[in-house]
Amino acid sequence: MADLIEEIPPEVTRRLGKALFAIPLPSCRRKTRWRIGLVETNGPVGVAAGLDKEGLYTRALSYFCPGFIVVGSTTAKPRRGNKPPLAARLRPRSLINAMGLPSPGLPVVLSRISGIDYPLFVSIAGFTAEELLAQIRYVERYGHNIAAIEVNLSSPTYKGLWDEAAPLLESKKPLFIKVGPTSELRAYLNLAKRGGHGLVVTNTLPVSDQRLGVGRGGVSGLWLYPLMMRMLERARSYLGRDVPIIAAGGVMSCKQVKAVLRLADAVEVLTGILYYGPQLVGRLNACAAADLDNKRI
Predict the structure, then answer these.
(1) Angle between helices 225-239 and 185-195 (to 10 degrees)
(2) Is residue 144 classed as helix, strand or coil in its secondary structure?
(3) In this model, does residue 37 exceed pLDDT 90?
(4) Is residue 192 part of a domain?
(5) How far apart are CA 295 and CA 123, in angstroms?
(6) Tell me, what's the pLDDT at 294?
(7) CATH number of the domain residue 161 falls in
(8) Which of 100, 115, 172, 280 is most buried per CB count within 10 Å?
């Protein structure tokens, strides 16, 4: 299946995926109870931010038994995103995307997923510290079914440094800071440790690519896996076991999941779903849960 998909233009598969994920399917029944820091999930392998930016496909994704689903990234107000083409392929099993943080706005997204009883994170993005903080407060007030907030501090769409905004982050809900390959990792590790936040390692790798409408984007998939593992090793070595870490970047196999979970508390998958289908997360959860019992509840 993955070999066939590599031959199909990514814009076509993106539209086909939207049609598939729009089917109203019942949520998977819980098989495993898992903890990522203070957050209880249905397993260690979840769906990463970026697959369901608008909250339209969350219910359908829950049918395939992910441990959790990250919805977004959202913005405080509606945002159109970049002009197409929005994605291009890299071999093996990788993508460059330049979505540009399109969003109908956080209030719309939360209203769409408010009736879904499943472990949900919401990923928030913004171009000022005030935008981020406003969304955190909104989720605290209206996101009754949101288990945690993922703060996207490293989207390739951003221009500039986020060291000024990051220290202001705090919430009544668990926060996970998403860092990227070009982030000053030590600064964010210290921030997580001081603030009691979790980490998501890593975001996409910013690159130039003239196949995209804006001429640049972020690499995800297998190309990102070795870089993610190096960042994960550094983060865990520095932080010890006190800070929950979620790994994201090119995980597509049982062997990879086992290797990552020796260091991380959980895994997020996106590009693998685009190549192998949404049933991949269920298979990876079953594989992980068969061998790892230390974080089961």
Answers:
(1) 50
(2) coil
(3) yes
(4) yes
(5) 23
(6) 46
(7) 3.20.20.70
(8) 280
Query: How many other C-beta atoms lie within 10 A of the C-beta of residue 8?
Result: 11
CA–CA distances in Å: residue 137 to residues 93, 164, 236, 291: 38, 19, 30, 38
Encoding tokens for residue 94?
């990788």
- pLDDT tens-digit series, residues 90-112: 999 999 999 999 999 999 999 99
Structure tokens at 264: 């991380």
Q: What does the pLDDT average to over 176-189?
A: 90
User: Angle, nearest 10°, between helix axes 129-142 and 106-113?
Assistant: 20
Whole-number pLDDT of residue 11: 56
Label residue 186 exposed, middle or buried (CB < 10 Å: 0-12, 13-18, 19+).
exposed
> How far is Cα 284 from Cα 254, in angstroms, rounded to an integer?
6
Number of domain units in the chain: 1
- pLDDT tens digit string along 106-157? 999 999 999 999 999 999 999 888 899 999 999 999 999 999 999 998 888 8
User: Running DSSP on this structure, what letter comes out for residue 35?
Assistant: E
**Residue span of the structural domain in which 171 resides:** 2-289
Q: For strand 216-221 and strand 175-179, is the pairing parallel, antiparallel, or unpaired?
A: unpaired
In a domain, 237, yes or no: yes
* 171 lies in some domain: yes
Q: Tell me the pLDDT band of 261, cut-offs 50, 70 and 90.
A: very high
Burial class (CB in 10 A: 0-12, 13-18, 19+), 19: exposed
Burial class of residue 95 in the structure, from the number of CB atoms within 10 Å of its CB (0-12 exposed, 13-18 middle, 19+ buried):
buried
DSSP letters of 45-110? EEEPTTSSSSSSSHHHHHTT--S-EEEEEE-SS-B--PPSP-EEEETTTEEEE-----BS-HHHHH
pTM across the whole model: 0.91
Average pLDDT for the chain: 89
Checking if the pLDDT of 296 tops 60, the result is no
